[in-house]
Amino acid sequence: MDQKQDKLNQILEAATIVFAESGYAGARMDMIAERAGVNKATIYYNIGNKEKLYEKVLQSIFGNELSNTEEKMRSISSPVEKLELYITSIAEAIDRNPAIPNIVMWEHASGGMSLPEIIAQEIAGMIENLALILDAGEKQGLFKKINPMLVQFMIIPALMFYKTSSPIRDKHHAFPEIARNLPLAVSGKFANEMVRFILEGLKK
Amino acid sequence: MDQKQDKLNQILEAATIVFAESGYAGARMDMIAERAGVNKATIYYNIGNKEKLYEKVLQSIFGNELSNTEEKMRSISSPVEKLELYITSIAEAIDRNPAIPNIVMWEHASGGMSLPEIIAQEIAGMIENLALILDAGEKQGLFKKINPMLVQFMIIPALMFYKTSSPIRDKHHAFPEIARNLPLAVSGKFANEMVRFILEGLKK
Amino acid sequence: MDQKQDKLNQILEAATIVFAESGYAGARMDMIAERAGVNKATIYYNIGNKEKLYEKVLQSIFGNELSNTEEKMRSISSPVEKLELYITSIAEAIDRNPAIPNIVMWEHASGGMSLPEIIAQEIAGMIENLALILDAGEKQGLFKKINPMLVQFMIIPALMFYKTSSPIRDKHHAFPEIARNLPLAVSGKFANEMVRFILEGLKK
Amino acid sequence: MDQKQDKLNQILEAATIVFAESGYAGARMDMIAERAGVNKATIYYNIGNKEKLYEKVLQSIFGNELSNTEEKMRSISSPVEKLELYITSIAEAIDRNPAIPNIVMWEHASGGMSLPEIIAQEIAGMIENLALILDAGEKQGLFKKINPMLVQFMIIPALMFYKTSSPIRDKHHAFPEIARNLPLAVSGKFANEMVRFILEGLKK
DNA sequence: GATGAATGAGATTTCATTCAT
DNA sequence: TATGAATGAAATCTCATTCAT
């Protein structure tokens, strides 16, 4: 039983990496099997087909990594601190699971047609969460009135591009010094600077 | 002569759309040929192979659409106005050529290994441009000191995600009202709000 | 296990025939698959690609058929008998595997650029073998001094052309009676006549 | 008019080289056109198609180079000298037009199905010619009785393999010294040695 | 349950030939 | 007459999936 779960996890981990690297269309079942150290037919036996495997990958990523952000925020009341936590905890999730930004990019690039409803709900929850924070801040006279979607679009895409642009920035010598060799982790300096900048912009 | 250029453009346009929709791995030469209204072999006759076609698409997009931003800015001296123009002209380029954000996402998702040096230089130029604007604003006592990469990451990814997330947001009913049915154009209300927010955050 | 070897052999046999009939450029993977009674993809699964398949054919032909000539000669000491065996055993190998002369011709016609080193060694071994026989005969006062390459060039090409010219000679009515309807086997009358003629020419 | 003939000759020469190098199936109309310095469509306009072009190449080679051997022999009466001339003039023809052995090999390898009747007659004529020489020699008590096909097979294939094996012998280091770096011309030392050896074998 | 082998459908690419000027 | 451009047919090769054990 445990062994079976192990094998399933191996497959899922391998699939996550390969899908993150190559996207759905570019991923090869061969690569996944090899990386997982199992026979290709084993994947079909255990999971079904490429599409189902991809869905499982999406679920494991979004279900496990991003969903617990909300919980952490319950204990905090200050909108400023909540916003800070919102940004840093997303940054940390991304650092913890570097497949997230890649998969999100693949999904966005492809129009997100394979995004399961359950994951859409996850993301929708994040938006609502942020909207509540901003609303509370406004009501407490801390923040000015702002379109939550603008803030959302300035936080999450920035964190993700920071990560996915890393190989591009490092590879090409054309990039200026400030763009090259940035820290790999987005949850450190970069996320903190972002927190400060956004709070500044929100300040009444 | 002109007719040949026409056919090349047809191919390039069709390829741009298909690559934007499906990415490199997912794009089918068949689709591109059909969309361009030419025989598949005509593509091979004119371009060579899939890889070269993709490169040409990248070049046409980045070379034509994004590169002329810089010129527009020459006549303006105020850093505030320059920053405003920076954001709005990128937003307009994206609206004009909706393939841009998709292709950028595909490239980022895949690690950008097929990004030609020429295009890297284009992007590098944009970063340097923004850095100069921010530096000038700082020296004139208008802006506070800020990491230009942070600002860069809060502008361009936001504009692009705004566009690419559109089908995802509209498709899933889970998304809250504020996320659904946003205007298609990013260069209107959204870009203006962004300009205001960023200037606010930069203000000394 | 055995069955896999069987299928490999089927593929190899079919490929040998098709390559012998049509050469590398003219051979069609379709034909080979059909002749072998397997799916085309099976060839790619087992072998890799056309080039590798061709190499394997070359190796099987030269490694299996021609290489054992040398062994047979060990037990014989007389240079005359050795030379006789040299000629007749090559003739027999050619009769046994009629693909040999065709493939040799294709290779010679194309400049032999795809001939693997291993096979070149095989052929080189045959030349050295003949040179030793002639040298021994000379030292024993039986043969006159002769350029071994001349003898080599008068034996092997003759045996091979005998076989490959058969369809040409039989097809065209222009050919004189002595050229038409020669026995199919080269290892019978023809090889014996050759043995006699060459020994005559070598006799001191 | 002359210019047209020039262009036709260019095409024919280029085609001869390419067919000699790559065979019928391996030859590419593109290569031929490029080598001839004309547009591909020009070949089709002037000649028709690949098959007709190949036929013209065969005709030019066999009609021009090999056919005049016979004439040269008329003035000579001695069978010994005639045989010598037979061998050396074929060797010279081969040296003069190095495409001959390659094309002959391609034809033999493929079963010679595209060999036009006219060329078969040419070859048949050579066989009859040799048979007459041997017969005369026998009747004059100079040669022993011999199968003319045996002699034919020991002359022409040897001369041709000498040429076509050259790149193979030189490329592979496995070949013994005596096989490497033989003179390029077959009409010198090698043809003379052959003449001597064959006359020796024929001597009564 | 697990896997090496096999494959059908379809992808990219090639090439002799034709078209339009 | 000549040619740059275009193409239909067919070639090689790939890949998600299934089969047989």
Q: What letter string, H or E per element, gives the SSE order of chain A?
A: HHHHHHHHHHH
Low-pLDDT windows of residues of chain A: none
Structural class of the helix and strand makeup of chain A?
A: mainly alpha
Query: Which quaternary structure do these chains form?
Result: homotetramer
Q: Count every beta strand of chain A, where a strand is a DSSP E run of 2 or more residues.
A: 0
Overall pLDDT metric of chain A: 91
Count of alpha and pi helical runs of chain A: 11
Name the shape of chain A in a single word: globular
Radius of gyration of chain A: 19 Å
Model description:
The structure is a homotetramer of 204-residue chains. The first copy, chain A, has 204 residues and is mainly alpha-helical. Chain A has one domain (57-202): Tetracycline Repressor, domain 2, CATH 1.10.357. Helix content of chain A is 74%, strand content 0%. Chain A has helices at residues 2-26, 29-36, 40-46, 50-66, 69-73, 79-96, 99-109, 117-139, 148-164, 166-171, 189-202. In chain A, helix 1 (2-26) packs antiparallel against helix 2 (29-36), helix 6 (79-96) packs parallel to helix 9 and helix 6 packs antiparallel against helix 11. Chains C and D meet through helix 1, helix 7, helix 8, helix 9 and helix 10 of C and helix 1, helix 7, helix 8, helix 9 and helix 10 of D. Chain B binds a DNA duplex (21 and 21 nucleotides) through helix 1 and helix 3.
